[in-house]
Amino acid sequence: MAHPQIKQATLRDIADEVGVSYQTVWRVVNDHPNVAKATRSRVQRAVEELDYRPHRAAQMLTTGRSYILQLVIFEYGHSDRLPAILHWGREYGYSIIVTELEVPPTAASVRSVLRETSQMIDGLLFLMPYPHLNYDDLSDLCQGRPFVVVNTKLGSKMPSVVFDQWNGARSAVSHLIDLGHREIAEISGPLDHFDGAMRHRAWEVFLGNNGLEPSLTAAGDFSVCSGYLCAGQILAQKRPFTALFVGNDTMALGALRALHEAGLRIPQDVSVVGFDDIPIAAYFDPPLTTMRQDFEALGRESIEYLVSRIGNLDVPIQQRVLYPELVIRKSTQQNPV
Amino acid sequence: MAHPQIKQATLRDIADEVGVSYQTVWRVVNDHPNVAKATRSRVQRAVEELDYRPHRAAQMLTTGRSYILQLVIFEYGHSDRLPAILHWGREYGYSIIVTELEVPPTAASVRSVLRETSQMIDGLLFLMPYPHLNYDDLSDLCQGRPFVVVNTKLGSKMPSVVFDQWNGARSAVSHLIDLGHREIAEISGPLDHFDGAMRHRAWEVFLGNNGLEPSLTAAGDFSVCSGYLCAGQILAQKRPFTALFVGNDTMALGALRALHEAGLRIPQDVSVVGFDDIPIAAYFDPPLTTMRQDFEALGRESIEYLVSRIGNLDVPIQQRVLYPELVIRKSTQQNPV
DNA sequence: CTCTGCATTGTGAACCATCACATCGAATCA
DNA sequence: TGATTCGATGTGATGGTTCACAATGCAGAG
Description:
2 copies of one chain form a homodimer.
Chain A: H1 11-18, H2 22-29, H3 37-50, H4 56-63, E1 68-73, H5 82-91, E2 95-100, H6 107-117, E3 123-127, H7 135-142, E4 147-150, E5 160-163, H8 165-178, E6 184-188, H9 194-209, E7 217-219, H10 224-236, E8 243-246, H11 249-261, E9 271-273, E10 290-292, H12 295-311, E11 319-322, E12 325-327
Parallel strand pairs in A: 1-2, 1-3, 3-4, 4-5, 5-11, 6-7, 6-8, 8-9
Antiparallel strand pairs in A: 10-12
Helix pairs in contact in A: 1-2, 1-3, 2-3, 5-12, 6-7, 8-9, 10-11
The structure holds a DNA duplex.
């Protein structure tokens, strides 16, 4: 009825059962040579029968390895990146402790989390697209524990896995230019956010490179609400534009709403491109042209890299780069002019 | 440069530093009486200086407590429930290992996760709105470790925390009836999902109670895509309806799109009510009338209940119920008839 | 028939915090 | 003053796994 408090079998239990020493059992469990075949199979049967599994705490105490990773999240729209990280963590044999911290990241907040967990984790993953903490800060905070940063600055010297926001944004803007648009407005993400800033800068530069004026812009915070408000600000300037590049899909949803309310048709009056390709983007009104990011690959690469650094401290510090991909739907069309 | 592999101070290190026994240090750290004031403060200074913290693995080995919980997720739209759970876990001093499993839940899949983690966690939280595993199954799988189920069936005998979907759905439907609607269609969630089924059943019953015909319905799977398709199915029946109750906001988004494409105006031609009040619901076209669920409270209650069960196995098995709340926006209006 | 070599098995100590118990000295009471 | 109590501190063993090393037994070489 109540909690039976089931007692886990230990090495000694198995040893007593079979009539050998715990060391012999240990050798069988850990696939060491020098155990007689007959002994080995007897031990294996007992292990099976008593459902022996090495006690993680004891293992942790002697080896210093816990097979637990910690994921520290600072992102708003993190939820799309999470499943792949969890999945690949398991795939590599690690459990993942997830911690969410307030934006912006501070050394103090990270320190206070790590005080509680640092002793029981093998490595850290920071989902932290912000410039507030650099490599030295993190190295210091992690006290020698391996870490990998997901979504940091393209070109950063940290051990990291990132999407190439620069070329991603370029693809988005090029798509609009190729369609003949000359007045391309922008709703950027927050400029203290690496992705937001990089996408904004790319918009600015590629417009300039094409002899266009990168001036009609407003900065949001990636929320649907800010997308709505920024679109309002842009419309309030009463300057003509036939295309709008939005820093992420969520803001694009807010922007679509504001444009509709202003009586503008998408894409006939304004072509809109988003960024991320969140699952619902294909169901916006109209379905959104956007930049897809392969979060599955992001999770896999992040875990793989972190685990390899845990296994061997000499794995070089590098940045692994993934590339976004343009997905054309119904929110963009040829400029009728 | 490389990993300095910083050595954590132990009880003995502090003891040697101060010139007392490890036991005395232990007493100071654990706030036990019977330590001379002078000794206590000398020890405290050394603890401070060497940044001593009890080694979690060793603590775990002797006490059997890890201060780690495991959250097992089976939900599609789990992302809105997660932050509050993580937050309140920390608040109560627990780290949380998050694991995502495929729907539907099976004993085998849960067992395989617990094989890896069960030895190092103090309790489990199942986010599992499915009937596949009952109390006995879970008790068996958890082997006496305390657990709490989030989002299970209203009225279930499991230790659980749930929203009252029945009264929530009744509020939504009543709102439509109060507005004078007589033909109320429905897009339900999956019927093997507790929330989906309960909301559907409530729609059915309350329409019947009001002398209305609960026949125009289609079942989706909570995805935006299914919302779009189900709306199409309903429209294809060419039967009149002036209101639509949708099983969650995400499907409502898909449905809005389908209704728009069919040339129907919201709310002039059709009033729409969703469920969940996800953050973007206020930015749909039009802003969605929906049922809000307080996920913050859900997280707090779940953690509080689980932690109390960990502390005292005699805490009674109960179901804690939270109530959704109607949020009226622009997608519903008086039936013009 | 002894000695070396090797496969097989076992012993002891370490990791670090915890808990039960032992010791010591000083203060209290009869 | 001797017995008792109590506060302050220390010792020893425990938990389960891991690792270095010791011990045993048997084979083949000399």
